[in-house]
Amino acid sequence: MIVTLLGLACFALLVVSLAPRLVGLSPLPDRIRNVSLFAIMALLITIVGLIQSWNVALALLNLCLISSIMALGVNIQWGYAGLLNVGIMGFAALGGVAAVLISADPVADAWAAGALGIFVSFILAVVTVMATVYAYRNMAPSMARNLALFAIIVIGLIAIRYFYGPAKDAIEDVNPASEGYLGGLGLPIILAWPVGGVLAGLAAWVIGKTALGLRSDYLAIATLGIAEIIVAIIKHEDWLTRGVKNVSGLPRPVPYEIDLQQSQWFVDIATRLGQDPALSSSVFVKLCYAVLFTVVLLAVLWLSERALNSPWGRMMRAIRDNEVSANAMGKDVVARHLQVFVLGSIVVGIAGAMLTTLDGQLTPGAYQPLRYTFLIWVMVILGGSGNNWGAVLGGFVVWFFWIQAEPIGSWLMQTLTAGMAEDNALRVHLLNSTAHMRLMTMGIILLLVLRFSPRGLIPEK
Amino acid sequence: MELLNAFILLSNFVLVPAIAYGSQLALGALGVTVIYGILRFSNFAHGDTMAFGAMVTILFTWWFQSMGISIHPLPTALLALPFGILFCIGFVLATDRVIYRFYRRQKAAPVIFLIASMGVMFVTNGIVRFIIGPNDQQFADGERFIIKARTFKKMTGLAEGLSFKVSQGITVVTAILVVIALFWFLNRTRTGKSMRAYSDNEDLALLSGINPDKVVMVAWIIAATLATIAGTLYGLDKSFKPFTYLQLLLPIFAAAIVGGLGSPIGAIAGGFVIAFSEIMVTYAYKKFIAYLVPESWEPDTLVQLLSTDYKFAVSFMILLLVLLFRPTGIFAGKSV
């Protein structure tokens, strides 16, 4: 049932967006096509709500919203300026870190035990970097300078470790089963969203400073690297994020189900609507999230559209389409690239913080490049690079099928292997590996769109 | 004696592993650099191509093992390697025919190639996981050690042992042979020379009648061969797990860029630079220092600059330094 409906919906998506171009007919007028694409998407989520359950549909919707925001961030970088960010995972993870640092309860014992040592080693790190830069700038290039730089770095590292090691151990020894980290500031988690954006923006600035202005590939490789390192840090620095032990139970910006079920007004409304209070409480919570996320999405979308249609946006596109001539016109290409790269990363960071908020926990082990970086890329390319609405639609479509591919895949495998014996080795293997089909499907979608419809579902105007 | 012990200790834990790891990285970086030199894009699918080649090799190894074919004391994987290479070449040429050729005809920007290679990476990754699964696979057999630490201790009477694994020996020997063959091919044969000409100046090469399709095909064949060898050697030395090959992408790119993208010599040098720094920075020098200084000076910490969890950070830092100060790499490959 669900598979048939989903299949029909896929078909409708294809017909509306790609088919006219493939068979050579004139495409539908833009507005009609765009509206019908979003309508099909809304219909799909409604179908899931009706057939599976509203809980599932809303959970899906929330992640679709977050994915759309991330895709918007990447679209700012790739669509506006042609910058290739392959480290989306890292920026999203920084958003997650912000959620912990802002909202988790501070662990007083840990602060007493090691905060000073961590602070001192942080200061030492800053001093080391500054000394290195100073020596590099003010000494003539010579063997002596190289030795001096080497000495500064080694001494700096030893000094940092001298303070950092004991402080780290002390913090991690504080009640390791449930704490063992500094904790956060205990502030409302909504504050973490902009802070996540700021953290991601800072990281992007460092990367952009080094890798922009060189070949486009270098930025891709540098971002790939920073993402790996950021995730390595949050996985292994237990004093900061508890590492793979996860920080769970982050406070919520919305009510808890249990409180709703115990408050009279909510139970009254639920019974009046003829719903089970327990079930409707979780639907209500998800709706609250959906409203919050929609507000952020609309805000980011509005700002992006304004930016894209402003003189600034025209300049960015001019730079993207021809760097040399834009440079000749007196535009500072590298500085504008840096600007747009930081802006896009901020949006990704915000989305990352929202994701951790929705999960209610930070699970560093869950940050996988295929899921957090390359999937977002498929969203942007499929949606339509350079078009904000396209990025939003791409976020919805790709996330929807990423989730629903599992039931579709296992149904497909069941059907394909129906003729084989129950214990046929090939059949068992195929059924067990349907999960990996998702990756392949996403890769194939990316390649097909890039080849046959490189401008995506909603092309740039 | 103490000095000798210290040296053996360092060889055992730094020198030998770094040489083996460096050879694997160098082979991987050579593949990246060849594709970069000819097709002018950074191939993000290279890590997964390595995984694909290694996977086919593993499947053949298992098949040979089940038939009782072996070349004891060497691992059976060496026997299966040619088959892995053949399949990998076939696979890579198929991706070129189906995907990259279209963009080449269109003269698409390198960035488009790069995104296409991300798509290929997805698909290859999916295929590998689909066929062999996401878990660790064991396929090493034959003798495990050339020299065992204990035998070495007995032989020399030193306190420290030096162990030398067969996989490490094979890695180094194979890498040397492959590199010699590659350089002979590039410098001595007609096809190799035309490839270097194409890489230096595409238009000029085309004018002088070099067939671009042939050059591109040979580049893919070389890349696939190198990828399979590198992937199999890495799998023999450590273990085969599809995900680790994705993670190898960063050190491999770092090696290629450090050496200078497009420069084969640079790729080799870069591989060793990355491998040595990664292992030296994450090695705990406590015992080493203890041999060299009087007992009372012995350090009570591990004397480790960076914990092993951050070994990828090392290649990244080197990459950043190179991008900042010498974006063309040590051997001045292409940049900008």
UniProtKB/TrEMBL annotation, chain A:
<feature type="transmembrane region" description="Helical">
    <location>
        <begin position="110"/>
        <end position="135"/>
    </location>
</feature>
<feature type="transmembrane region" description="Helical">
    <location>
        <begin position="35"/>
        <end position="66"/>
    </location>
</feature>
<protein>
    <submittedName>
        <fullName>Branched-chain amino acid ABC transporter permease</fullName>
    </submittedName>
</protein>
<dbReference type="Pfam" id="PF02653">
    <property type="entry name" value="BPD_transp_2"/>
</dbReference>
<feature type="transmembrane region" description="Helical">
    <location>
        <begin position="78"/>
        <end position="104"/>
    </location>
</feature>
<dbReference type="GO" id="GO:0015658">
    <property type="term" value="F:branched-chain amino acid transmembrane transporter activity"/>
</dbReference>
<feature type="transmembrane region" description="Helical">
    <location>
        <begin position="218"/>
        <end position="234"/>
    </location>
</feature>
<dbReference type="InterPro" id="IPR001851">
    <property type="entry name" value="ABC_transp_permease"/>
</dbReference>
<feature type="transmembrane region" description="Helical">
    <location>
        <begin position="338"/>
        <end position="355"/>
    </location>
</feature>
<keyword id="KW-1133">Transmembrane helix</keyword>
<keyword id="KW-0472">Membrane</keyword>
<feature type="transmembrane region" description="Helical">
    <location>
        <begin position="147"/>
        <end position="164"/>
    </location>
</feature>
<keyword id="KW-1003">Cell membrane</keyword>
<dbReference type="InterPro" id="IPR043428">
    <property type="entry name" value="LivM-like"/>
</dbReference>
<dbReference type="GO" id="GO:0005886">
    <property type="term" value="C:plasma membrane"/>
</dbReference>
<feature type="transmembrane region" description="Helical">
    <location>
        <begin position="375"/>
        <end position="403"/>
    </location>
</feature>
<keyword id="KW-0812">Transmembrane</keyword>
<feature type="transmembrane region" description="Helical">
    <location>
        <begin position="184"/>
        <end position="206"/>
    </location>
</feature>
<feature type="transmembrane region" description="Helical">
    <location>
        <begin position="283"/>
        <end position="304"/>
    </location>
</feature>
UniProtKB/TrEMBL annotation, chain B:
<dbReference type="InterPro" id="IPR001851">
    <property type="entry name" value="ABC_transp_permease"/>
</dbReference>
<feature type="transmembrane region" description="Helical">
    <location>
        <begin position="166"/>
        <end position="186"/>
    </location>
</feature>
<dbReference type="GO" id="GO:0005886">
    <property type="term" value="C:plasma membrane"/>
</dbReference>
<keyword id="KW-1133">Transmembrane helix</keyword>
<feature type="transmembrane region" description="Helical">
    <location>
        <begin position="215"/>
        <end position="236"/>
    </location>
</feature>
<dbReference type="GO" id="GO:0042941">
    <property type="term" value="P:D-alanine transmembrane transport"/>
</dbReference>
<dbReference type="Pfam" id="PF02653">
    <property type="entry name" value="BPD_transp_2"/>
</dbReference>
<dbReference type="InterPro" id="IPR052157">
    <property type="entry name" value="BCAA_transport_permease"/>
</dbReference>
<dbReference type="GO" id="GO:0015192">
    <property type="term" value="F:L-phenylalanine transmembrane transporter activity"/>
</dbReference>
<keyword id="KW-0812">Transmembrane</keyword>
<keyword id="KW-0813">Transport</keyword>
<keyword id="KW-0029">Amino-acid transport</keyword>
<feature type="transmembrane region" description="Helical">
    <location>
        <begin position="77"/>
        <end position="99"/>
    </location>
</feature>
<protein>
    <submittedName>
        <fullName>Branched-chain amino acid ABC transporter permease</fullName>
    </submittedName>
</protein>
<feature type="transmembrane region" description="Helical">
    <location>
        <begin position="6"/>
        <end position="39"/>
    </location>
</feature>
<dbReference type="GO" id="GO:0015190">
    <property type="term" value="F:L-leucine transmembrane transporter activity"/>
</dbReference>
<comment type="similarity">
    <text>Belongs to the binding-protein-dependent transport system permease family. LivHM subfamily.</text>
</comment>
<dbReference type="GO" id="GO:0015188">
    <property type="term" value="F:L-isoleucine transmembrane transporter activity"/>
</dbReference>
<keyword id="KW-0997">Cell inner membrane</keyword>
<dbReference type="GO" id="GO:0015808">
    <property type="term" value="P:L-alanine transport"/>
</dbReference>
<keyword id="KW-1003">Cell membrane</keyword>
<dbReference type="GO" id="GO:0005304">
    <property type="term" value="F:L-valine transmembrane transporter activity"/>
</dbReference>
